[in-house]
Write a structure and sequence with these properties.
The complex is a heterodimer of chains A (709) and B (156).
Chain A lengths: L11 H5 L7 E4 L3 E4 L10 H13 L6 E3 L18 H28 L7 E3 L2 E4 L3 E4 H4 L33 H5 L15 E5 L9 E4 L2 H4 L4 E7 L2 E6 L2 H13 L1 E3 L11 H5 L4 E9 L8 E9 L11 E7 L2 E6 L4 H12 L6 E5 L11 H12 L7 E4 L2 H6 L7 E9 L5 E10 L53 E8 L14 H19 L3 H7 L4 H13 L10 E9 L6 E9 L5 E10 L6 H21 L27 E6 L15 H16 L10 H11 L1
Parallel strand pairs in A: 2-3, 7-17, 15-16, 19-20, 23-24
Antiparallel strand pairs in A: 1-2, 4-5, 5-6, 7-10, 8-11, 9-10, 12-20, 13-18, 14-15, 14-17, 18-19, 21-22, 22-23
Helix pairs in contact in A: 2-3, 12-16, 15-16
Chain B lengths: L2 E6 L2 E6 L6 H8 L18 E4 L2 E4 L12 E3 L12 H8 L9 H14 L5 H8 L9 H17 L1
Parallel strand pairs in B: 1-5
Antiparallel strand pairs in B: 1-2, 3-4, 3-5
Helix pairs in contact in B: 2-5
Classes of the chains: A alpha+beta (709), B alpha+beta (156).
């Protein structure tokens, strides 16, 4: 293996935050403080980053102390999303630590009188010939890290890495098993009060009037906050805050609200709205005779993030400065929105991360932070903790956007694909805070004067796109046109949910490919391999097929299906094979997956993410659908929004194809699209009918059978 | 205000106050015991489970008056880092979580299961955990961890 050459330019996150000391500091007795700008959301990122730092610095991982992101001290790495954290934060840390290591070796060389190349580092102790030794901590006073990173640093070769690339136990898990307070929900601040915010049941209803007589009589009430249509209570305990909210609700008069679409005709709704149309990609080919066109429509419903923990935040005012504790995915982005709403300079606001439960995208984490800030304003300088109700979490937080996808495939006489048109109708898949001139936070639409609700947009195709994510086939088809229609109305609030549009698009593409393979009488895996040039793509498909002993013999009542995608067409490769069983109610027995993330920093962490993604996708496919009538969201509790239970969870088998020489990418969103498609294709294999509307429920199967007969 | 007495993690505990307060509010708000988590407030997700008289039960909708003289065990009562319960050890070995918010309730359901059925089958473990929701998809790891703990307890 050849020695790596210096990187020609700094990794993105390091270029944006070049000061070495903002990433790495040697502290106290033999400790290393590592400050990434990315945050733990249950994906294990903090452990993977600790591995990278430990490896480059040659210190034991137990010496590494991972610092929670805060706008007061941390590098600004935007948002923790899009399976980019290993890619962005990991590369920055690897580079920064490599340079730090080099700076210390140079200083050690001077102090010890030994040429730097003769020195070695073992768990932070630097030693050389003649038994001379020093350490990072001895030299820390002499080596300033208040320097900007340079481009020349050379990270270790793959062969010399001893921590990254190996499974290690996650650093956060012992706290969670022994119930040591780690979640924001469990970390009470001294002298803290409790707040609750009044939100309407009817969608889009505005608070017109508020009779505060009843709430004023509630024992423990500290204050009522009111700003236009925003109203909330502050009390000395959580039960008192709940009682106060109940009393406040009785005194509220609401406007009529805004109508919601027809839940049973989502495609009709999506296709009838004003849209912004973008041609995502076209590929032209010499005109080939086609003899038939298959035209298929696929839909997926609105999907709830459904964090097990309701969103929670704390805030405390000190004069005209405010400190916020949040489980937001982007502390700087949240701060930018808070600055707009509060009309304060960003420097007057500190936003500090504390772990929450898994969020799976943009849920109410940011909304509740503004709630806490607004309620803390009336708390006389005491911190206020706000926690949403399950009801509000399931009805007022943004949802993953519903999608209608239409594909037309032109086929020649041999049923080979000669043309392909893929069109998407959907709300945008992102309305995160901190990216626009107007705030994206819920309470900002309630205060006086209210900001308009931010209509979701789509990230640029270069960043993976939004509704169009994974809509351009990775397959070699001779011609295609991919079109995205983004809705300009948004009666149901949407924002980023894990994979954005990729789950819907992969479901659609892989379903139709399966149908065409069947038309040709060709094995669906052989059909896919024949249309792929990318060897890594072929490898994951072949690996999954081998592990699942493709194709198992046909048995009555059992079906098998395959799905494949490379997430964002630039990220992780993943192939999934599903075995399903059933006639009406479908059960997924087994999922077999192969994944290629390049260098897997923590292989068990990758497996964990893929297993989790596969199971969550199974839940989406079989059960999940946000319910509403024409006036309100009705799926506001777990019984109304069922998710997969332990007894319903399939066995999941994952093989990671390690490619240590290839830059790592994230694993958190790789499985959803392939698993969705694999299950849908297995259902078709099992029952002989195709369900093209998610979720695949008994009713949908019966409808598909009636249509087929 | 009435006084309610009960055993909490083996210690006699008494609480003055409204007997209609929930056990979860008292644990978290009054006693600073934060292992049991709020998830839904309606006994529908399992995040707040505690053992009462050896049974895993939701504490978020359990009024204090119903706890009088009962034996309550929270995840803090299962074990510590120094003296972990076999389940806690097994959850670390199997890396049986992603975010971990649901884990304390799941440990309680599992501990209650192993009390009444020390050598459960995989199906019995799943059935025992069916009232606990996990959104991250760590179910299979958790089931493996419970089976690992059961076999460890059987041989020790």
């Amino acid at each position: 293996m050849s020695a790596p050459s210096p990187a020609p330019k700094l990794p993105v996150s390091l270029a944006a935050n070049p000061r070495l000391s903002s990433w790495v500091r040697f502290t106290g007795e033999g400790r290393v403080a590592i400050s990434p700008g990315k945050v733990e959301i249950g994906q294990g990122i903090v452990t993977a980053l600790a591995q990278i730092a430990a490896d480059e610095l040659d210190v034991d991982i137990s010496r590494v102390e991972m610092i929670r992101a805060s706008t007061a001290t941390s590098p600004n790495e935007g948002v923790t999303s899009g399976s980019l954290s290993v890619q962005q934060s990991g590369r920055a840390l690897r580079h920064a630590c490599a340079e730090v290591r080099q700076r210390f070796l140079t200083a050690a060389s001077e102090r010890l009188g030994v040429d730097a190349p003769l020195l070695g580092i073992d768990d932070g102790t630097i030693s050389g010939p003649g038994n001379v030794r020093t350490s990072y901590w001895e030299l820390a006073g002499d080596v300033s890290l208040d320097h900007d990173a340079i481009t020349g640093a050379v990270a270790k070769t793959v062969a010399k890495r001893t921590v990254a690339g190996h499974s290690v136990q996650r650093v956060d898990i012992p706290d969670k098993v022994f119930a040591r307070p780690r979640f924001i929900h469990d970390r009470a601040l001294p002298d803290q009060l409790h707040g609750r915010v009044l939100r309407p049941d009817v969608s889009g209803a505005r608070l017109l009037a508020l009779d505060e007589a009843a709430v004023r009589a509630v024992p423990g009430l500290i204050a009522v906050a009111r700003d236009g249509g925003f109203a909330g209570v502050v009390a000395d305990s959580e039960p008192a805050a709940e009682a106060a909210l109940k009393a406040l609700r009785k005194g509220a008069t609401w406007s009529a609200g805004e109508p919601l679409p027809d839940e049973d005709d989502l495609a009709g709704f999506l296709k009838s709205q004003p849209v912004e149309t973008t041609v995502i990609d076209t590929r032209a080919a010499a005109a080939t005779e086609h003899v038939r066109t298959l035209r298929r429509q696929y839909t997926r419903p609105y999907i709830a993030h459904g964090s097990i923990a309701p969103s929670c935040a704390m805030a405390r005012w000190d004069g005209n400065r405010v400190h916020v504790w949040t489980h937001s995915q982007g502390v700087y982005l949240l701060r930018a929105d808070l600055a707009i709403v509060l009309k304060l300079p960003a420097e007057s606001i500190v936003v500090e991360h504390m772990e929450g439960a898994g969020c799976y995208g943009h849920n109410a984490a940011d909304d509740v932070a503004l709630d806490a800030v607004l309620l803390a304003k009336v708390a006389g300088g005491r911190p206020v903790r706000v926690q949403w109700s399950r009801h509000d979490e399931m009805s007022h937080a943004p949802f993953g956007a519903a999608m209608a996808i239409e594909i037309e495939a032109d086929l020649d006489a041999g049923n080979e694909i000669v043309g392909w048109r893929h069109a998407i109708w959907s709300n945008g898949h992102a309305a995160r805070p901190g990216r626009a001139a107007q705030p994206a936070l819920l309470a900002a639409t309630e205060i006086a004067p209210p900001y308009p609700r931010m209509i979701s947009t789509n990230p640029a195709a270069a960043n993976g796109g939004g509704g169009d994510r994974n809509s351009v086939p990775l397959y070699e088809l001779p011609a295609w046109t991919i079109t995205s229609h983004r809705l300009l109305t948004m009666p149901v609030r949407t924002s980023a949910l894990r994979t954005l549009g990729a789950q819907g698009n992969v479901f659609a593409i892989e379903s139709l490919l399966d149908e065409i393979a069947a038309l040709r009488g060709e094995d669906p895996i052989a059909f896919r391999l024949r249309h792929l040039r990318d060897e890594r793509a072929k490898d994951v498909i072949r690996t999954a097929a081998r592990r699942a002993a493709w194709k198992p013999q046909k048995r009555t009542g059992i079906g098998h299906g395959v799905g494949f995608a490379r997430y964002k067409n630039t990220g992780a490769y993943c192939a999934a094979i599903a075995e399903v069983e059933g006639a009406g109610d479908i059960r997924v027995n087994q999922l077999t997956l192969a994944v290629d993330v390049g260098e897997a920093i923590n292989p068990d962490g990758v497996v964990n993410q893929i297993e989790g993604g596969a199971i969550q996708a199974t839940s989406w496919v079989l059960k999940e659908r946000v319910r509403f009538d024409r006036t309100r969201i009705t799926s506001t509790s777990w019984p109304d929004y069922p998710i997969l239970t332990f007894s319903e969870v399939p066995a999941v088998d994952v093989e990671v194809i390690q490619r240590p020489e290839i830059e790592p990418v994230g694993a958190g969103e790789a499985a959803h699209g392939p698993v969705t498609a694999a299950i849908a294709n297995a259902v078709a294999d099992c029952l002989g009918v195709r369900v093209r509307d998610l979720p695949i429920t008994r009713d949908r199967i019966i409808a598909a059978m009636e249509l087929a007969s | 205000m009435p006084t309610i007495q009960f055993q909490l993690n083996g210690t006699a505990t008494s609480v003055d106050g409204d007997p209609d307060l929930t056990l979860l509010d008292v644990l978290r708000g009054r006693l600073g015991i934060t292992g049991a988590h709020f998830g839904c407030g309606a006994g529908e997700c399992g995040a707040c489970y505690v053992m009462v008289g050896g049974h895993a039960m939701a504490s978020c909708d359990m009024p204090m008056w119903s706890v009088a003289d009962k034996d309550v065990v929270t995840v803090e009562g299962l074990g510590t880092a120094g003296q972990p319960h076999p389940l806690q050890r097994a959850f670390i070995t199997e890396q049986a979580m992603q975010c971990g918010y649901c884990v304390s309730g799941i440990l309680i359901s599992a501990a209650a299961l192993l009390k009444r059925s020390p050598s459960p089958t995989e199906a019995e473990v799943k059935a025992a955990l069916d009232r606990n929701l996990c959104r991250c998809g760590s179910h299979n790891r958790m089931v493996r961890a419970v089976l690992r703990a059961a076999s460890e307890m059987a041989t020790s």
